[in-house]
Amino acid sequence: MMKMVDMLKKVSDTLTEYRMLNDGERVMVGLSGGADSVSLALCLKELGYDVCCVHVNHCLRGEESDRDERFCREFCQRMGMELSVHRLDVGKYCADNKLSTELGARKLRYEAFEKAANDMSASKIATAHTLSDCLETTLLNLVRGGGVKGLSGIPPVREQYIRPLINCTREEIESFLEERNESYVTDSTNLVDDCSRNIIRLKVIPQLERVNAGVFKSYLSTVKVLRDTDEYLEKKCQEAIIRSRISNNSFDVQKLTDCDELITRTAISRIMKDFCGESSYERVTDVMRICSDEGKITLKGGIYAENKRGKLTFYSESEPVGDYEQKLSLGETLCVFGKSITVRTRKADDKCDNVHKKFTNKEIDYDKIVGSIFVRNRRNGDRVKLSGRGVTSSVKTLFNASVPQENRQKMLFVCDDEGIIFVEGFGCAERVKCTDSTENVLEISVDTVTEPSQ
């Protein structure tokens, strides 16, 4: 049986290796009530971190789901941890939005995580992904087809998300809890081999352990090499992308291909994922071919790649959307991408006296604006700290959750000389939000332009 101190040391070493947490930083644990998340919360608390938790009840398993919620409430009360509980009607959401249960549940769960982290002032969100989960992911990507990134499994860190148990196996975790005499709940759906991941967990990995009892130790060494390789490729392919970029959706073919073929292929794969949401070896090969010879190919459902006179452009069935930027004067209305946008000012006390009702996420403290105001569309690498969210997020991550691929380049951003102050559909930036001391308000109005009837 693994000693408790070894488990704590392994988690501590992982936190240090990937620079997951700073001293004094508050961390929120996604707590399902299962062995992995319970051990994660215990480890972080024992290591001296300020821990709070969030539990998401997907309301998919009836009484069992309610049992898990009760367990998490009792556990956090006993441990003195703050807990935020979110009950979600995942079934209705998936039916309304025509999503699979797995995809819909994941989307709602991560939205709940980020809201809870903001409400509880946690700068990092810790999820209980383990080395066992990581191996399952690698095997899934192997049988489905994927590159180095897919074979690298689950990343230890992704923006504000951290995985402190990523070097621990499920067996080690259960031994840790047994030694501490801590209970946990079991999701019955994990015990039935009715989906790909469960088949790998219940059937495939036990057979691999018959071949090599130390399969997890061997895999850990291998996956670290794969992550290092992926990090190197990512760095080189980003250099190629930056070097060759002409606009948000077009690239200089000579500069894109003036490097090792593997770097070019990886760069094209990354670009395709931005525009299509996916890439495959065959489609990347097709794009490589038109980079050598002018031409046009269909990537996916009305999304195209075209090389014309040494310029590789990715676009949808409608006209390609290039970079747009225009200065915006007070009281002026601009029409762009089928929308109108207007900015105007007013005194903060011109409406009701209740500050919480007075200010909305389309209202900005005008006196905090630096320099000129202008409107533009998305740029590669855009990041913003939105009011009330507590963390700086990439615009790509914001859009991935709720904005269709074909609309992303047409979303409107209002900026000043220091950066983004407003994102259409998401609200204003933290640095320019209205407060009780706001005197002058900038109101932003974005409306759909109605075409006249014929």
Describe this protein with a few key phrases.
454 residues, Rossmann fold, Chorismate Mutase Domain, subunit A, Phenylalanyl-tRNA Synthetase, Chain B, domain 3, 6-stranded mixed sheet, 5-stranded antiparallel sheet, 15 helices
Question: Could you characterize the architecture of this molecule?
Answer:
This protein has 454 residues and is of the alpha+beta class. It has 15 helices and 22 strands. The protein has helices at residues 4-17, 35-46, 63-79, 90-97, 101-119, 131-144, 148-151, 170-180, 196-211, 215-244, 253-257, 261-276, 281-292, 355-358, 395-402, and strands at residues 26-30, 50-57, 82-87, 124-126, 157-158, 161-162, 245-247, 250-252, 295-300, 303-308, 311-316, 325-327, 333-336, 339-347, 363-365, 374-376, 383-384, 393-394, 413-416, 419-423, 427-428, 440-448. α12 (261-276) packs across α13. The longest helix is centred in the middle third of the chain and has 30 residues, at 215-244.
Protein topology:
Blueprint: H1 4-17, E1 26-30, H2 35-46, E2 50-57, H3 63-79, E3 82-87, H4 90-97, H5 101-119, E4 124-126, H6 131-144, H7 148-151, E5 157-158, E6 161-162, H8 170-180, H9 196-211, H10 215-244, E7 245-247, E8 250-252, H11 253-257, H12 261-276, H13 281-292, E9 295-300, E10 303-308, E11 311-316, E12 325-327, E13 333-336, E14 339-347, H14 355-358, E15 363-365, E16 374-376, E17 383-384, E18 393-394, H15 395-402, E19 413-416, E20 419-423, E21 427-428, E22 440-448
Helix pairs in contact: 2-8, 4-5, 6-9, 10-12, 12-13
